[in-house]
Amino acid sequence: MRRQHCELLLAAACCIGVPWTPGLRADDPAARDRAAYVGTWRAVTIEADGTAQPARERNIVVVNREDGAWTMTIDGREASSGTSTIDPLATPPEIDIEITTGDGAGSKLLGIYELEPKRRRLCFRGAADWRPREFATAQGSKAVLVTFERE
């Protein structure tokens, strides 16, 4: 996979923001996951098409706000922003990412996510492709797996 294509996919993956909806109950799984995403996250590992990518060579940071908006910077440059929707009740939990501005604007990605207090993982593919069902990539899969740590 070409480096530029990987960076575009990574940019989208890093930009996970979960739309906030007024009136959700505190015991609602979507509300729980939305609240857990809020904050600043740094990409620490990236794997694309079965090949590890040098995440630490780039300073990739995503800021997720309570209203679900997200902004991603790469090496201090605002790269893209957008929205996403989640289904925390799917197995594994699913995420659809829409890039609305910047690199990849107009793109949609289908993915799955795993969320812990200080770490999250995302595995995704382009919307024209199938949604991953596991947190893994293989050569030719067009899948990207990114691990983030909370700052």
Task: Write a structural description.
There is one protein chain. By secondary structure, the protein is mainly beta. It contains 2 helices and 9 strands. Strand 7 (108-115) and strand 8 form a beta hairpin. The N and C termini lie far apart (29 Å). Mean pLDDT is 84; it is low at 1-6 and 11-24.
Shape: globular
* Strand arrangement, major sheet: 1-3-4-5-6-7-8-9
Class by SSE composition: mainly beta
Helix share, percent? 10-25%
Count the E strands: 9
Please state roughly what percent of the residues sit in beta strands, choosing from under 5%, 5-15%, 15-25%, 25-35%, 35-45% or over 45%: 35-45%
Task: Give a topology summary.
Blueprint: H1 3-14, H2 29-37, E1 39-48, E2 51-53, E3 60-64, E4 70-74, E5 77-87, E6 94-102, E7 108-115, E8 119-126, E9 144-150
Antiparallel strand pairs: 1-2, 1-3, 1-9, 3-4, 4-5, 5-6, 6-7, 7-8, 8-9
Key phrases:
151 residues; mainly beta; Lipocalin; 8-stranded antiparallel β-barrel; disordered N terminus
Briefly characterize the structure.
This protein is mainly beta and 151 residues long. 14% of the residues lie in helices and 44% in strands. It has a single domain, classed as Lipocalin (Beta Barrel).
